[in-house]
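Fig. S4 source data, part A: sequence.
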Amino acid sequence: MAKSKVLIISSDLEVGGVERSLIGLLSIFDYSLYDVDLLLYRHEGHFLKYLPKGPRLLPQIPQYSTFQRPIIEILREGHIRIALSRVFAKFLSQIDARRRGITTETYYLAIQKSWRFAIPFLPMISGQYDLAISFISPHYTATDRVKAKIRVGWIHTDYRMVPSDGSYEAAMWDKLDYISAVSNECRESFLERFPNLSHKTIVIENILSPDFVRQQAKEFDAGGEMPPESGLMRILTVGRFCHQKAFDEAILACRTLIDTGCRIRWYAIGYGPDEPVIRQLIIANGMEDTFIILGKKMNPYPYMQTCDLYVQPSRYEGKAVTVREAQILGKPVMITRFPTSASQVEEGVDGHVCEAGIDGIVEGIRLLIEDSAYRDRIAIAAAGRDYGNKSEVENIYSLIPQ
């Protein structure tokens, strides 16, 4: 019996929750039954070393590698039409943002338009597939440049918070056979924007391996970078330095906590476009020794294992992989109350949910400092739960035509 052919498409394997989810999926695919090709737009990222042997990594295609590189650079390489489409997309996105009063994250508007304008200038992906999975949006490659019987596009975020342009996206979503959200809350938020797509919007959760997380947490001792100190709580946040993750609010909350006598040291693992702004905010508030950026870490798990409290201060999330990873390691977890927070923790049981914003973060952390019994209780509950969900891959298999 011939194997079914599957294509999985993503941008790269840089450090991030989406990328860890992709590694999780690739690690449990049944390669005795399925031939899996992996198309990465750029063969870059610290997670490349974790790529399992099962999938066949397709050669990098120059045109597809252009989208997150400077326009002047891709002009020098001769990709003139793609460069012009990006310039035009950026111009239209700025106009659109001003019209709609959007002051942050216009990048998302620009990338949507860039792909739509550039797609005619991108080559077709060779081969024919039974299933094409576009793991990160935009999904134009899967819809327009792949021959596949079934096409699926993933949603990893709360769509209510994404400054997308429905008029530009509608055709892309219409061409997909299925739209897969990583939680029920993500599905509902997407359908608020596109209610006519409910018939093909499904839920397939991020696939995590608790054994892998625990194994990686033992790879080295992070105590040297996060030294213990009597009476001091070590807080950790992992995420991309961008508006969504609210590191700016975390810094200001940290300042307030210190000013009111709390003994804390807050560590941040990550990288991203807002890093210069975040570093300047730390300096402006005199917290170079209190809010410490550890930078990009290929393996964040030893740091999670070392911290006393894991905090996700995000303005919004789809389903943050880092929160689940901290729970797997039995850490007390606090998240802000965003629309999809119920999919992350069972409030007051395996995690604490504080109100969003600086004041809410301050009150939540102060509670967890003062109420050690509550803090221990949610940590013990998290450690005792089985967060493994390898069976989710069966939902992917079910989409493949027989």
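Fig. S4 source data, part B ends here. The radius of gyration is 21 Å.
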